[in-house]
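A protein record pairs a chain with a discrete description of its three-dimensional fold. The following entry can be read in just this way.
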Amino acid sequence: MSPDGTRKEDPRTIVWFDIDNTLYSASTKISQAMGQRIHAYFVTLGLDEDEASELHHSYYTQYGLALRGLTRHHNIDPMDFDRKCDGTLPLDDLIKPDPGLRKLFQDLDRTKVRVWALTNAYKTHAQRVLKILDLEDQIEGLVYCDYQQIGFTCKPEPDYYHNAMKQANISDPSKCYFVDDSQLNVRSAKKLGWGHCVHFCEAGLEIVDGGKTKKLVLDTNTNDPESIRQISDLEELRTLWPEIFV
């Protein structure tokens, strides 16, 4: 603690890991299972199947998360949404611990870096996933979407990243390493000056994004000066970021 009562900033850099479809493969089809549950939730609002699909996609596109649209335009309890959607996912049946992934986290040099998770899910879901993957003890901090907070932010909004840095007590964005399966999220972080951004993309696999199924594809615009490094296996981080591994 500094003389003025503020926390002294840790000199180490931070590695931020997204959770869903990053720490586990999109082949688990968790996004598909989640999409079905969100669609069913929209139907409970009295919408028919087509209306539910369109409103789901519209809210996701406009607000980054369908739930944000629901809380703005419908009288719903966000925690009810969380219990019925994220809370009913059979995660224990869909994902398992990966010793190789755990070893990757263990090999991060903790004298140089801190390791945090950065997710658009609520903390309950994030904690469930980290526990199943046997990574709880490898994550120092968790930044999540606080569904109970009115007007909560999410990736890729700048305020979300600013809040993440505030929570982690780091002021220099260039000291942030970040990997996420959403290119939009990674680009947003890079625009804010996050120094080492990587897009995780399992090209060819399908996910449900905003209620719509899409096939994952790599960005082939190699002439873009703002191009972001892309990987299909987290093990590639050892090569991209050798300076933070032991």
